[in-house]
Amino acid sequence: MKVTIFGSGYVGLVTGACFADAGNDVVCVDINAERVEQLQRGEVPIYEPGLDDMVSFNHDEGRLRFTTDPAEGVRHGLFQFIAVGTPADEDGSADLQHVLSVARTIGDHMDDYRVVVGKSTVPVGTADRVRAAVAEQLAARGERIEFDVVSNPEFLKEGAAIEDFVKPERIIVGTDNPRTGELMKALYAPFNRSHDRLITMDIRSAELTKYASNAMLATKISFMNELSNMAERLGADVEQIRLGMGSDPRIGYHFIYPGCGYGGSCFPKDVQALTRTGHDYGYRPELLEAVESVNRRQKQVLAERIREHFGGDLGGRTFALWGLAFKPNTDDMREAPSRVIMEALWEAGAAVQAYDPEAMDEAERIYGRRDDLQLCDNLYDAVEDADALVVCTEWQVFRSPDFERIRDALRYPVVFDGRNVYPPAMMEALGFTYYGMGRGESI
Ligand code: UGA
């Protein structure tokens, strides 16, 4: 099948590569000429396990092409996927200018029936606006060409995006035309084999399903973080509580890990946008507001703990910080707790020696070179002569380091563990003063 994907960012690239890998003929369109040139050379500008190989293999086979020419893209695909960014506006609502501009481009150039598929996470009602934008451009050209609009939100996790795409838990298709539903089913057939995971529904419900899923997951995390703060004060251990709670299948073990807050390009933005939508429609979503504010507060907890430990004054101190990315297996630092913690340490007059397995370039891009940030080559350089170690992301490589080497390199053997990576008893036995999250027993 012929597929066009607008937007060669994270979602667009994964979608394009996976459709091409299943044998489809895919054209990816992006307005960023530099990015398109990079991709044409087989270089993938984002870090995602397995994506490099998939892109270059399918590019070499001629099934995956990249262009800056939108007209070429519109002429190519029966399916026109819109996978461009929807950054948050100042008031938290999603900025739709890129989505609507692609819709207008499709209306400008289409010469035959097209299925316009929304992949970007967009507020309820956006598909109607996309439909109107395409129709308006067609009308301006005096053309009466048929097209359909579909909402097909993506549920990819960074670091596991390819796996999520090729073995999805669900494929949501929002459409008002059963025939289009069948076309989508045929396109997704290679990823929908063992049993039917494709759920067809009306367009608005599909748009809302995406926000509802992310908001539910964010709620689980904020709930656990709230509980973690209480456990700490009550002298209980949230990690034991997590195991006790998770054993109830109605609750489940997934996504109930407390920590130093959720980050990334999705949860913070989507919870805010859904809250905003509620307000726009005359409803105050109090639970969502709390999910957001608990998360904001949680990102401050580690910095406050560090300040307290050092008697309120961090001036002139240096901290080793492990884990800059918002979670393991990505170089993405958007809304990462590490940033809030690092900025709070700087604000208090301290310096940071940071290490992350993938996000070092990203940290340099965001913060540039500054005296109070040293980007280190490995985890041990980061702890050298630092006053304490702060762990912000649970990368696998942080789990079993040479603790004796770390203890000897640090000025004080103190570890602030924002992800409960280490067992408190073991850390204490190794001679560390250890602070976890919500581990009242150990404090
Ligand atoms: C999230 C969703 O998990 C995907 O299903 C969705 O498709 C995606 O957003 C999206 O909307 O595009 P992602 O942002 O890649 O995926 O990351 P997650 O693995 O969900 O982690 C989000 C944050 O929650 C991380 O900061 C992580 O550390 C934190 N987290 C996660 C916790 O603090 N506790 C947990 O138990 C789980």
UniProtKB/TrEMBL annotation:
Occurrences of domain UDP-glucose/GDP-mannose dehydrogenase C-terminal (ranges): 320-424
Catalytic activity reported: UDP-alpha-D-glucose + 2 NAD(+) + H2O = UDP-alpha-D-glucuronate + 2 NADH + 3 H(+)
Biochemical pathway: Nucleotide-sugar biosynthesis; UDP-alpha-D-glucuronate biosynthesis; UDP-alpha-D-glucuronate from UDP-alpha-D-glucose: step 1/1
Transmembrane segments: none
Signal sequence interval, chain numbering: none
PROSITE patterns registered for this protein in UniProt: PROKAR_LIPOPROTEIN (PS51257)
NCBIfam families per UniProt: NDP-sugDHase (TIGR03026)
Listed PANTHER family: UDP-GLUCOSE 6-DEHYDROGENASE TUAD
Family to which the UniProt record says this protein belongs: Belongs to the UDP-glucose/GDP-mannose dehydrogenase family.
Name listed for the protein in its UniProt record: UDP-glucose 6-dehydrogenase
Taxonomic source organism: Halorhodospira neutriphila
